[in-house]
Amino acid sequence: MLRPSLPNAILHPVRLLPLSFLALTFVGTLLLLLPFARSGEGSASLQAAIFQSTSAVTVTGLATVDTSTYWTPAGQTIILVLVEIGGLGIIALATLLGLFIGGRLGLRTSLVAQADMHVVSIGEVRPLFRRVAVTMVFFQGVLAAVLTARYRLTYYDDLGTSLWHGVFDSIMAFNNAGFSLNRDSIVMYAGDAVVILAMSAGVFVGAIGFPVLAELFQGWRRPSLWTIHTRLTVWGSILLFVIAAAIFLIYEWNNLGTIGALSWQDKMVSGVEASAMTRSGGLASFDWGSVQPETLNSATVLMFIGGGSASTAGGIKITTFLLLGFVILAELRGDPDVTVGRRSISAAVIRTALTIALLAVMLVVGSTFAVMSMTDFAFDEVLFECASAFGTVGLSTGITTQLPVNAQMTISVLMFVGRVGTIAAASAFVLRRRTTRYHLPEEQPIIG
């Protein structure tokens, strides 16, 4: 059998996805190093540019410098563009441009899009991407209009500043990126139900996933006809949203360091914000470094789970988490098959879910111990930081800027792997499935 040529091996859909994100990160770093991108004299430091570009491309939101003061409006625009491209996926954007300009898709492009967006069949790529473009423009446009109007009426004196903040925040919210044009994130909007709830809604929708949004667009009134993927994502997201809000409000209700001094209405708004932002949003109207240990640990778990597949959220994805729950339930019941609703789940899908989850645990725990060996921070703070990076969330207890360069580079790698690694790994497992013509003798080692 002839071995594939080097160009074909490199351009394989599974390899092209991380390489594309890596190339975009490199380009973003070069642009941020230009003198006009940084406020003050001279260019940005190489470490700051790499970290900021990686965080923007992976739609994370962690930063070693203050986005509002370190970068000029031109630099902030570069970050905005990197977030927009990274959120949609550089492969998806190239495919959309091909659709609108050329009107056709090549087989390789379709396969790449299939790997990136978790489309079931190649034939679904074209209509899916059309809906992706419309959905993205629609939600970001509506969110930008709401925020701009609110900013103009309440916070800023001129329309230009209000529009810039409205557009920036809408893109950050929908793409689940935690950057802000304000020095203290969204603390100045604390208690403002219009701003906080609008941003939280944008984060929630962006974290659902484009395939789910496309299916809901066609048949949201008929839940009984939804696919298993859509059911798990929608109902699972709602369930986690309620649980996360309840946990936050229970432990932070009287905490003067966070929301204890707010009215009960503002506390409820903050509960919605905390629930949405810990899934992947990364914006905060209070200090996460002052939350109770129970809140910090539950948020770490939520960040690790993340949002929906093929979304702007990170983590192991909610479908992976829930499928593992059904695996445990089937094992406790003694059922021979894992079933969800009236559908059985194949062994190959279960193996993929288990592999992704275990690799993620190893990655986050390994990175946590690596960063701890370089710093003097407590375990829960470092674990929170690493889970935030892997889940491309962007929340921090405030230690990001205090980390040494080697620890910041470790976080950068974790952000990159968290954004493209699990997608590439899942796609690789799917594309490498093969049918064997034999079955080896079975043996049952002792488990437990």
Topology (SSEs and partners):
Blueprint lengths: L5 H5 L2 H21 L12 H12 L9 H4 L2 H16 L1 H13 L4 H11 L7 H30 L4 H16 L18 H14 L3 H10 L8 H25 L11 H18 L11 H13 L12 H16 L4 E3 L2 E3 L1 H28 L4 H12 L14 H27 L17
Antiparallel strand pairs: 1-2
Helix pairs in contact: 2-3, 2-5, 2-7, 2-18, 3-5, 3-18, 5-6, 6-8, 8-9, 8-10, 8-11, 9-10, 10-13, 11-12, 12-13, 12-14, 12-15, 13-14, 14-17, 15-16, 16-17, 16-18, 17-18
Question: What attributes does this structure have?
Answer:
448 residues; globular; two-stranded antiparallel sheet; mainly alpha; 18 helices; disordered N terminus
Describe the structure.
Helix content is 65%, strand content 1%. The chain has 18 helices and two strands. It has one domain. Strands 1-2 form a two-stranded antiparallel sheet. Helix 2 (13-33) runs antiparallel to helix 5. By secondary structure, it is an all-alpha fold. The longest helix is centred in the first third of the chain and has 30 residues, at 125-154. A hairpin with a 2-residue loop joins strand 1 and strand 2 (343-345). The chain starts with 5 loop residues before the first helix and ends in a 17-residue tail after the last helix. Mean pLDDT is 84; it is low at 1-6 and 99-103. It has helices at residues 6-10, 13-33, 46-57, 67-70, 73-88, 90-102, 107-117, 125-154, 159-174, 193-206, 210-219, 228-252, 264-281, 293-305, 318-333, 347-374, 379-390, 405-431, and strands spanning 338-340, 343-345.
